Automatic annotation (TrEMBL):
Phylogenetic classification of the source organism: Eukaryota, Fungi, Dikarya, Ascomycota, Pezizomycotina
UniProt name for this protein: L-ornithine N(5)-oxygenase
SUPFAM superfamilies: FAD/NAD(P)-binding domain
Span list, region Disordered: 241-265
Cofactor names: FAD
Annotated family: Belongs to the FAD-binding monooxygenase family.
Pfam short name (any one): NAD_binding_8
InterPro entries recorded: FAD-bind_Monooxygenase_sf (IPR051209), FAD/NAD-bd_sf (IPR036188)
Amino acid sequence: MPLLESPAYTDADIPDYPQSTPQPLKIIHVGAGASGLIFAHKAERGLKNFELICYEKNDSIGGTWYENVYPGCACDIPAHTYTLPFEPNPEWSGYYSYSDEIQQYFLKFAKKYGVEKYVKLNTAVESATWDESESIWKVALKRKDGTTFVDSCNVLVNGSGVVNKWKWPTIEGLHDFQGVLAHSAAWDRSIDWAGKTVAVIGTGSSSIQMVPKFAETGKHVSVFMRNQTYIGPQFGSNVSNKEADPDAMEPHAAGKHQYTEKEKQRFRDDPDYHLRYRKAVERSVVSGFKMFYRGSETNIAAKKLMQDSMSQRLGDRDDLKKRFIPEWSPGCRRLTPGEGYLEALCEPNVTCVFSDIVKITPTGLVTADNVERNVDILVCATGFHIGYQPHFRVTGTGGQVMQDQKQPNVYASICVPGFPNYFVVNGPRGNWGQGCVMPSHEVHTEYIVQCCQKMQQDDVKSMVPREDVTTQLNLYMDAWHRKHSVWAEDCRSWYKDNEPNGRVWIWPGSLFHHLKFMKRPRFEHYELTYKDPSNIFAFLGNGLTITEEKFAGTEDMPIPYIRKDEDEIWDIE
Ligand SMILES: Cc1cc2nc3c(=O)[nH]c(=O)nc-3n(C[C@H](O)[C@H](O)[C@H](O)COP(=O)(O)OP(=O)(O)OC[C@H]3O[C@@H](n4cnc5c(N)ncnc54)[C@H](O)[C@@H]3O)c2cc1C
Ligand SMILES: NC(=O)c1ccc[n+]([C@@H]2O[C@H](COP(=O)([O-])OP(=O)(O)OC[C@H]3O[C@@H](n4cnc5c(N)ncnc54)[C@H](OP(=O)(O)O)[C@@H]3O)[C@@H](O)[C@H]2O)c1
């Protein structure tokens, strides 16, 4: 292309601000669980000239850890791993932390970094519509008092949680039950099961944590199990903390390990030691990824080890061994360490029921073998409507509605073709298969902040992932799962939206693999629309940089490119 001879731009096309001066950007984040809090913190660190509101339907921040308070509710990833990677907590009371303690950790985090100011509680997002003429999202909201209003933003971040909308099972007569009917994710703390008969439906992670608690004091517990699952070993049961306190529990205690005051003091006083310990625990969690390669040596060995270990823990209960130990590989359904679960199933006051529930009566449950069991308390540990599609209506370009898509069409678990300036934290195909979600939540929020910086600094009005790139990426992911992964095996799990032969909705690779890909956006995978498509270099501005304007005429002017050695990273604001 020849250079134009006549001037294409006038003086008015050359802005008076320094290069890449951040232009105003308004962001709405849906939810104030871990995602909302981390995003607010990262936005404050990484963005200037922005406005952020995190709309939260509940009357508190915390998300999962505010809502889930069923008996025994805890993370089943070691506490020092279920921690924000940049925000260690020497105070964890035990190897696994219970729900209330995790909620306190997030409340403390929010206070420490002052991110509560971004949160608007008791306000649910009902729908979001992309206004093409203005390139903004119009977001419809409803307050708890029933009033509604509309807000708008340039960027919409969906951090409403993958396991947030809990579901009742579809069983005839469920709501005719006259005893106490409860769901694990909406637990009423006043329920007292001591001396009562309890039925628990489900064998997912929630049920696995509750059953030992009911078995301790309940008169009788019936567990309705229509599926098998692995109860895995305790992660990190080889990591000793004896250096901090010779009286610390043996590493193989893992799940039973309560940190002594001396251990916690060492974590507090010696951040380097604490960091080493945290890394050792994390290493024990993440270094086993090879077991998720179907048919690999590690996969076969892990399968045998876990089947043998379950068999041993189930003692002489051949009935349970036959019905409950899976044929498919460990990890196909989410692997849960399940402290005390198998032991509880063998208790004399616990009955495992494998026959399907056909109906619920006012007093109990009837199974396909025509047995009726009357119970005082009916607990549904039946999981969630998985958030593979947002639970609020999202309308993108050309009036397309995200929920009308047969399946989610997501680029790298973070954004969606046809829905500009929309991001989701750890969405479909995110990091849900290995380890803890905190590192990936951190990296996702940083990714979104980088996209916001790009928009603000390069005068980009909107960005949307390319459809062709997204299709190719998803086909690659499908092929990877077909070739390698245990998740594609014949089990039912929410990783496949509960379809045994369904598409696998988790990342095709390890946590490390996920973090490496998500560490920086590949803008070549996006279509960018500039604010002024006929003057896309307007951001070059007045010929100066912010650094020069900030330090003009002072002795403090940094000279970032003159440095001690080549490895020193430098940038110019
Ligand atoms: C019982 C339980 C135990 C778990 N244990 C582990 C574990 O050990 N390790 C692990 O890695 N992960 C675990 N998880 C997954 C857990 O959800 C994540 O670790 C993490 O807490 C997710 O944070 P989030 O902010 O993305 O979502 P959430 O914590 O679900 O927060 C989403 C927030 O969005 C709000 N919201 C939803 N819809 C709307 C709307 N329309 N408008 C406004 N607000 C809305 C919700 O009220 C909620 O506060 C567990 C989940 C459960 C349920
Ligand atoms: N500590 C933790 O880390 C922890 C604890 C709890 C939850 N979580 C997270 O939340 C996710 C969901 O766990 P969850 O246990 O709440 O749910 P889940 O894993 O989806 O398990 C739901 C259970 O309910 C059963 N079920 C559903 N409908 C039924 C019906 N009509 N009749 C009989 N059984 C029925 C399911 O059976 P089928 O298997 O046959 O479908 C399954 O066993 C976990 O995978 C995890 O990511 C984590």
